[in-house]
Amino acid sequence: MTLSGNSEGRPKWVGQIATGDNAGFFGPGSAAWTVHGGMATMVAGIRALLMQTLHPGAMAGVHDWSRYHEDPLGRLSGTIQWLITVTFADTVVAERESGRVAHFHDRVIGTYLDARGEERPYAAADPELLSWVHVVFTDAFLQSHLLWGTAIPGGADRYVDEWATAGELVGVRNAPHSAAELAAQLEAFRSAGTLKSDARVAEAVRFIRYPPLSRGMLPFYRIMFAGAVASIPREYRDMLGLKRSFLPTIWGTRLVLGVVGALLGPSSTSEDAARTRLARIAATKQLERPSAP
User: Fold this and answer.
1) What is the distance between the alpha carbons of residues 142 and 159, in angstroms, rounded to a whole number?
2) From CA 130, how far away is CA 136, in angstroms rounded?
3) CA gyration radius for the chain?
4) What is the pLDDT of residues 105-160, one digit of tens each?
5) Which of 36, 21, 1, 14 is nearest to 81 (CA)?
6) CA angle, 194 then 199 then 200, to 5°
């Protein structure tokens, strides 16, 4: 409900997932459906946002163009809309949604100080920034699911390979196609000295840590935030100025996700909409088959 902007907890755009005439880029039994349909996505989103702040170009784009202070959940909900739509919708809807994201990127331009203190221009559509965002999001969702989710069909390599398609839809070049390639690309950003921790990063981390959520949600969020921090490798935690809690946060996060999952049910509204589309397509094909003589 918090992220959907709908009192019933179902975003309006979910209805688009039930439309269309094909199974989409992935479909039932895919690694993408398993990972993005799991409860660990709640923690993955937090981890991805934290990691994204470490690239000064990406951070400049958020600082200069995002309204996260006025609309703290707007940017996150927009990202969720793209991720879920590409995962569960048919290919036409997924491509249209990716086009919406790419169109927004076209106007996000400016300058920033890199890790060496040199001023550089940036654009959200720059290959380096697109690659960084894709890598940290893929890594966040994969690692979170490995910690708190079920078995991934085809394993980590299949998930990374499948989700490369989503990256390519928004202009990512040379997206990783295996877990090893993903880890290598993430490390390449760090070892090249590209990443940076500064006052902007500290401000963003503070905002992600203490978002303006309802009092009823805050205890659950704080546990999931601690879980997200615990899942981040130490070299990045140090840059973010975060420390792993001495409490059993991995176990606590698993408990919270289990409780939330029990409350929400075994499948998401998005997956249900996708299955409705697939059932309609199957029924139509059945009717079109010539009857036996």
Assistant:
1) 8
2) 10
3) 19
4) 777 888 888 888 989 988 888 899 999 999 999 999 999 999 999 999 999 999 99
5) 14
6) 70
Q: Tokens standing for 219?
A: 């205890």
Distance separating alpha carbons of residues 223 and 216, to the nearest angstrom: 13
- Residue 55 and residue 189: Cα distance in Å, rounded? 9
Look up the pTM and report it.
0.90
Number of Cβ within 10 Å of residue 272's Cβ equals 16
Between CA 185 and CA 239 the distance in angstroms is 18
The whole-angstrom separation of Cα 271 and Cα 72 is 26
Structure token digits, residue 119: 């001023």
Residues 6+ away with beta carbon under 8 Å from 10 = 4, 269
Which residue in this structure is represented by tokens 């969720």?
80
